[in-house]
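Regression test case RT-17, inverse folding.

Input:
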């Protein structure tokens, strides 16, 4: 488990990772500036889940596996149980990105399935009425530029959830369960290294070419580079909004 330094009064975040290059990305900079400590557990490498009570929030990143592949990845069973306990029993803030978004839905009894086709690259999502009023999206316009890289989607939400964002390709781009458990289908953590590193993952390379075609897939890093400053501003705003929830009463 990767650990960061903290004091007794500093809120500590727990991060679940499923691939070493799918980490919190630019959020690491924001957390450092805010004095937030965090521990990363690399579940695909067999690292154990620590005591959940020690953490103020749980952040779950993406990965190339699917939520239903428990035979190939047995640790998914324990991960879903941990997510369910964290948001339903402990009722603490949660932020799931891509696979983490789908795992939140699956852990709570929703349905996740393959999408009609992969959604990869820059795109736009629209906030719903609930999303526009939600504190996670405070300061955002109703139309948000995003970066996508997924082949599965949340097809049916668990009971007690609100859809916060959608687009034509995916009806559940963001949702909330309870007070502060959030799933985002799109990626907000991008840095200049993200796309080049993910392009080297075979499963991601295949979905990239299927979604964009060979020529555009080869140029995705260059295409995305021009958008990184805007993505960084959105990521900072979302991170600030989420961190405020750590201090809010349950």
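Golden output:
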């Amino acid at each position: 488990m990767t650990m960061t330094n903290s004091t007794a009064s500093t809120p500590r975040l727990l991060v679940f990772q499923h691939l070493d290059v799918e980490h919190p990305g630019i959020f690491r900079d924001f957390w450092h500036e805010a004095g937030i400590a965090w521990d990363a557990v690399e579940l695909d490498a067999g690292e154990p889940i620590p005591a959940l009570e020690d953490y103020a929030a749980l952040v779950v990143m993406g990965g190339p596996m699917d939520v239903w592949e428990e035979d190939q990845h047995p640790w998914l069973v324990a991960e879903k149980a941990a997510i369910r306990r964290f948001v339903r029993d402990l009722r603490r803030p949660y932020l799931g990105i891509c696979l983490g978004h789908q795992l939140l839905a699956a852990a709570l009894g929703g349905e996740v399935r393959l999408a009609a086709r992969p959604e990869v690259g820059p795109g736009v999502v629209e906030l719903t009425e609930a999303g526009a009023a939600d504190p996670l999206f405070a300061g955002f316009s109703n139309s948000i530029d995003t970066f996508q890289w997924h082949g599965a989607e949340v097809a049916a939400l668990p009971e007690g959830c609100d859809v916060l964002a959608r687009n034509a390709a995916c009806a559940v781009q963001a949702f909330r369960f309870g007070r502060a458990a959030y799933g985002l289908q799109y990626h907000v953590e991008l840095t200049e290294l993200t796309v080049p590193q993910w392009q080297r993952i075979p499963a991601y390379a295949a979905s990239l070419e299927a979604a964009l075609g060979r020529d555009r897939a080869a140029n995705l890093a260059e295409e995305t580079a021009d958008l990184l400053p805007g993505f960084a501003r959105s990521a900072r705003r979302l991170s600030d909004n989420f961190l405020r929830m750590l201090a809010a009463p349950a």
